[in-house]
Write a sequence for this structure.
């Protein structure tokens, strides 16, 4: 294995002042620096700044592997981004990746339970966050504190306002579980759909719109030359309104019916295609999980329970209660805690907003390769969980082990993305 060389702080060019352990970048001389923490107080042999002649040598070095294995912070290549960015801008870069830049840890539920997370492994990392109302004070506070630049591109206040509700804080549907790791689904794909509509305009109508709305008065002049056609359409329009009022006609005639039945001509529709709006993306995933041990069967059950728990609303609209140790419920080795909106007492309280429900969690899933976001696969903004389907008879018959655990569990998830995509989002990796 190649070795990076430990260097003193005077030998590197710091790309920005608020670096954290795990960041690495390229210097002007072509060498690469990896920051592993302070050298003064940290006695670890892997602290300080480490230098390698190339990025490939840095990634092959022992110090890089140690950082990757520690998972205390995801590795961040500053060279890929605007090196003059502020710490707040760095936080915005991570919206493509996991929430709060918190990658998988040892407390993440996973299937298979012995799945490795190395630089060659592909997987989906699921996290959950509390829904942020888009027009709330919380959303406005996020907007005020966000950076004006995202991926080095200046953004408007309105654009930051629109995306502020995607800056979720991590929630743990099951106490202590920081996320879920599942293998890449076999059927993975998504569509970007746009709504276009065909509209019809008469020649006179085209000229009127061009003149009144676009200020193009020249088209009005050209329409005057077609005096006969314009007069025919105007007279026919008046005739249509009059004839539709006669009993027995029933108001079913249009201009084409009259001109077609009397003159053998119909109005030229002059059809145009006009853009309406983008549509929210949808995506579905299916995972078939077959336990190889009792412990893995428990984890599969908890993964299913976690998705089901996150997808449903919570009773009551009050504030979060504070739990004590004896209010934590242990289910098959995993501790459940009450979430926002739960009351600690069982007595009716008129101020507890019992007529309301709290909105379910949103889900942020990230397609990853090792500890880094897989930029070869399209990523998604936080999504609503539209469906959680569990099938215990995926092989056509119900069967269990002697302790009652199903021999196979098929989990189907359907998501709806919370925001529409713009060109800047595609450039960022969505």
């Amino acid at each position: 294995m190649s070795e990076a060389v430990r260097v003193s702080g005077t030998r590197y060019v710091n790309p920005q002042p608020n670096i954290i352990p795990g960041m690495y970048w390229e210097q002007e001389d072509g060498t690469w620096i990896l920051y592993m923490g302070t050298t003064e107080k940290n006695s670890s042999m892997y602290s300080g700044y480490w230098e390698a002649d190339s990025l490939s040598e840095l990634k092959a070095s022992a110090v890089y592997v140690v950082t990757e294995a520690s998972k205390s912070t995801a590795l961040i290549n500053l060279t890929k981004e605007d090196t003059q960015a502020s710490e707040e801008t760095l936080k915005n870069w991570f919206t493509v990746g996991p929430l709060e830049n918190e990658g998988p840890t040892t407390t993440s539920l996973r299937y298979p339970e012995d799945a490795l997370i190395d630089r060659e492994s592909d997987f989906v990392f699921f996290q959950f966050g509390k829904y942020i109302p888009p027009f709330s004070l919380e959303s406005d506070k996020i907007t005020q504190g966000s950076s004006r630049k995202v991926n080095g591109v200046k953004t408007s206040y309105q654009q930051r306002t629109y995306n502020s509700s995607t800056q979720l804080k991590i929630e743990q549907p099951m106490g202590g579980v920081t996320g879920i790791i599942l293998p890449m689904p076999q059927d993975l794909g998504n569509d970007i759909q746009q709504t276009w509509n065909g509209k019809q305009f008469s020649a006179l109508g085209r000229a009127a719109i061009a003149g009144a709305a676009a200020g193009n008065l020249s088209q009005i002049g050209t329409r005057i030359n077609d005096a006969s056609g314009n007069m025919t359409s105007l007279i026919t329009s008046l005739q249509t309104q009059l004839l539709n009022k006669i009993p027995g006609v029933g108001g079913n005639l249009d201009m084409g019916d009259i001109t077609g039945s009397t003159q053998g001509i119909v109005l030229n529709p002059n059809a145009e295609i006009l853009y309406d709006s983008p549509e929210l993306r949808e995506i579905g995933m299916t995972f078939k999980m077959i336990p190889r041990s009792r412990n893995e069967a428990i984890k599969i059950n908890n993964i299913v329970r976690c998705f089901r728990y996150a997808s449903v609303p919570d009773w009551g609209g009050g504030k979060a209660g504070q739990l004590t140790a004896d209010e934590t419920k242990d289910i098959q080795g995993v501790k459940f805690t009450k979430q926002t909106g739960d009351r600690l007492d069982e007595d009716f309280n008129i101020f507890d907003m019992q007529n309301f429900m709290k909105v379910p969690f949103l889900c942020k899933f990230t397609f990853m390769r090792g500890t880094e976001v897989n930029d070869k696969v399209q990523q998604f903004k936080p999504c609503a969980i539209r469906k959680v389907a569990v099938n215990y008879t995926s092989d056509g018959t119900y069967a269990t082990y002697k302790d009652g655990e199903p021999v196979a569990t098929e989990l189907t998830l359907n998501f709806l993305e919370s925001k529409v995509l713009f060109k800047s989002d595609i450039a960022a990796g969505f």
